[in-house]
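Issue 218. Parser rejects a valid record. Input:
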Amino acid sequence: MGSNKSRANYRVELHSQIFFSSLPNIFITINPCDLHHPLAMKFAGVDLNIDNLIVDLMPKSQQRAAIVASHPIGIVRFFNKLITTVLSTLINYNINKHKSNPGGGVLGEIEAYHDKVEESGRGALHLHMLLWLVNNKHPHELRNLIVNELPDFNTYIHKFSAIWPTSNNPSCRLRYPKKLHDPTTINVENGEIQMKHAHSMMNNFNEWLLLACRCYMDIKFIWSASDTKALVYYISDYITKKNLSFHDSNSLIYQVVQKFEKNEQKINYIDALDKSRRLILRCFNTLASQQEISSVQVASYLMG
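Output the parser choked on:
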């Protein structure tokens, strides 16, 4: 469960899907907020009427955090319900038959999709997904599907509060604020497409998906092969990242080697190959036993 080998298999699956279906067309990230979503509280056992929700009946923020931490199975059920509902209704893809329903959904008719569920540091689940469209849409149609600006009305843009810098580099690791570009331009020298970006603090979004999920999301149409390569590398590298850092792994292996050499005289080895095999096996078992696995991740694997 969650082993390095199982995560590496996702890379093979992704490459196989690209080989079978060609390059993907859309990349989506959906990060449901289990701490504030009423449906998450409902699945966690809180007595709420979802159809007639009264804000005052929602638990306070500290209570919600405790409820989420105490009910990993309920949080996984909430996440699965939200994602499968989005796929089956808004995207209109039949998960059981592995094909798009007639007419498609808000993003058009989908030929296939490949997704990967990841966990944050506190165990919250989020989704990265690549979509393959049956027919590529005209750019004019895509402008109506993916936007990063709002009409002229009163809005509240949430900004992260200032925190103590953790390094000598004061810039944001997510590269905010974004550079503004209006309109979309193409560099005639290198062919680079610079997409229109109308708001420095806003991600791309699809209004229907954003309205339904009410959480952080990002959506990107993949215009070129270079974009595809970058996204495939990002996803495959991200999902196959190791839980332990290099210095932690190095420290654990050093301890294993010390114990192995200390007990070397007590074990009868057949030959040098047998000795090496046993040492490698002990190193592997030690690293595998030191993985950090959250309760939500365990529940997610057990529930399929």
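Fixed in the parser; the record now loads. The chain has a mean pLDDT of 78.
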